[in-house]
Amino acid sequence: MKKTGLLKAVALFMVLALALSFICSCGKSEEVVFELDGQKIEADLYRYWLSYFKSYFVYNYKDIKDTEECWNSEIKDGMTNGEYVMQYTENYVKNYLCALKLYNDYGLSLPDTATEQIESDLNEQIEYYGSRSALNKELIKTCNITVSRLEEIYKIEAKVAQLQTYLYGENGIETLSAQETDDYYKNSYYRVKYLYFSISNKYLYDENGKIQTDSEGNYKTEAMTADEIAASKAKAEEAYQKALAGDDFNTLINDYNDPVLRYTDTYPNGFYITSNDINAHGFTVVSNAQSLEVGDIKLVSDEYAMYVIQKLPLEDNAYQSENDSFQFSNLGSLANAYYYQKLLSSMWDKITINQEYLDSLSILEVAKNINF
Asked: Which fold has domain 190-313?
């Protein structure tokens, strides 16, 4: 054989070998990370959800940055930010797995509307990226999954949502008893009253003492001066001392709060707060509502305001009271979600976990999710 023929033969062999290697690698199944009675969550799906929740925390929490320093920073009790998000993701994925088992046990199947929505969502992304191959390329780069696997993820999430509706939806087969509803109320709600003292912005008033609004009806504010911030802090301390001395809290609210925050007429008994109320009351109020003991009065602050918070005992059956019932409009759905979660987490100990894989993975290895 001539030398050129030999080179061609070797070249052909290398091409065939590479092609075979590519075919094998494409057909290679992902490592199983979680398994329960034949239901499996593979590594690529787990990495997708890890990238999704990583993006969720970066987007929603101003203290979380997508940097190595931030992810390796301790958040509490020796746990880093990265470890916290990974644990958060692990719990979610275990829920998905348990829900898939129950989904099959109940013999459920996705309705046409759900399948059509999944197809629509995928087509929308394909259109956004220009082609299926372009979307595939972006998914592989960020999450190491393909479009077909993204479709599988959408199906899993749709099944989990469908199961929750089937079990605990408006016409679900699981109806909460009065005792279960009351237990949820007692274990999940806290009652507080609080005074608010801004240390960042102040409302702008007109000559009649009314807060000014813009064209869209939003209250107008402007940054406070250093002197105004100092005065606001002094008022907060003054009100705190009066509260400790036993002054009526509703009177203090009317004396110290801005007009739009004088809630004693609409909320005479204070606020009934759950961990879901951060958007309504802010992290500082919600976290202290949870951590304070009943009867405590505390002066706390964040970068925006100072608060004098009084924690009060829950009142029996407050969610059935006409005066306070409007604060519990979401109690039913929250209670159903709680018992759905309780059902899923009761199955966690039956899951086989590939701990070696989880221990080998770092949150730094996944990019921010394109679907967030």
From this structure: Chitinase A; domain 3 (3.10.50)
